[in-house]
Amino acid sequence: MSRPRGLTNEEIKKILEESDDEDIDLDDEIDDPDFQFPTHNLQYSSDSDECEMDIDHDTIPQNTKNSGALSDTDTASLSSVDEIPSANASGSSPILWFHADSTFQPRMTIPAESSPSLLFNLNRSATELDVFLKIFPKSLMIWISQCTNQRLEKLGQTIHPTDPSEIMLVLGCILVMSYNKVPKFSHYWSSNPSLGNVAIKNAISRDRCKMLLSKLYFAEPEKPENASKTYYIDEVVSCLKQTFKKCRSESSYQSIDESMAKFKGRSSLKQYMPMKPVKRGIKIWQRCDSKTGYVYDMNIYSGKETGGVQGTLGERVVSKLTETIRGKDVMLAFDQFFTSVHLMETLKFPAVGTCIKTRKDVPNFTTKLSKRGEAEFLVTKNGTMCARWLDSKEVMMLSNCHEAKYAKVNRTMRDGSKEEFECPVAIEFYNKIMGGVDLADQMANVYELDRKSCKW
Questions:
Q1: Which residues contact 355 (CB under 8 A, 6 or more apart)?
Q2: Where do the segments described as Disordered lie (predicted)?
């Protein structure tokens, strides 16, 4: 049986001409003039394995503008400037951007820098242990000992129960082991002076310490059916979050970023981030002091949320971490994973952050920056600014608290010489206050300890 012959070019041309002559009538009775096809906007994060699709049912709410935002009369003065729509705007009312001029004022103001203070009293005779117990209170030691004893009872093991003082000894041994490393765990109890640690040997026996480390439990053994993925550590995290908040007043400048706790085992919480120093581990969102790295708040990332969630993952993380801020004189900085136009226009705190140019509602810059140090500013009538600056590569920044002004920065050239360039004030300020979480990671890594443990 022969294969069916395809249409020749002449036959195809004839069919197309016949179709052009036919009129297609639409029934006006079923034509809905208000109908609009839904548009979808895929948003990707450069440093996360999650991709979120946002269907445009969540239009950006209009903020109540303060005296710092552009009013309608101010935008009228920009009538000679073309209105620049968002590059990825969706829906019937995209955010309009204007070239910045002298009338622009940001929506928020940058707070004056002030030094945070301790919120508990310490006398001259206070020791390191007294400070530690403010962060890691005795009530938490009691909880851990109770949960561990319940676990031992459930397993039916005839082991002498533990108590809060013994739990404190085990935690102290872990801290000593983290900065005093030896080849094997048992070497800490060695009689060899070059290996054994006197403090650990005098505190607890080897077998008892090894047994408790393998049986430590931080939650009630009976796990509820609707418990979260982080059930076994939730009580500890909740306690630490409360003590972090109570022990220190809020600093003026803080940063929000992700931290990775190294973990090599199997867990549904484990994330893989190839561009990070710690590539595999448990991701923790943190809000830290920019100068000291003090952790004010943290949340463990347990995977993609289900249900009717709104906004990007970065927006939800920032909103959650800022709920616990006490006071208003706090400025935030975060990177492009978190930054969006919607976040900048709705956040209750002054903020600055790098931005991805393909993100929703980001303006479409038309001019090309050709010389290092050149910049361009676009603003909205609600007081949000988008700055684009050419350094060694192009940088884009969003801010709700900076004016369209320049600062001076020094850059090292290829021949080793220093050269001064103009830089938007927002970018200079971002570089100044962004490193809080990285500083916290740097200090925590001093006490890093790898050890094997059994699955709960």
A1: 336, 339, 340, 362, 386, 396, 397, 398
A2: 1-77
pLDDT, tens only, 24-61: 343 444 344 443 434 444 343 444 434 343 434 443 33
| pTM of the predicted protein model | 0.78
Tens of pLDDT, residue by residue over 387-443, are 999 999 999 999 999 999 999 999 999 898 999 999 999 999 999 999 999 999 999
Q: Which of 149, 107, 90 is CA-nearest to residue 331?
A: 107
Q: How many CB atoms lie within 10 A of CB 235?
A: 16
**What is the distance between the alpha carbons of residues 22 and 20, in angstroms, rounded to a whole number?**
6
The structure tokens listed for 209 are: 């310490």
- Give the Å distances, CA to CA, from 105 to 5, 94, 194: 71, 21, 65
Burial class (CB in 10 A: 0-12, 13-18, 19+), 24: exposed
CA angle 369, 371, 376 (to 5 degrees): 40
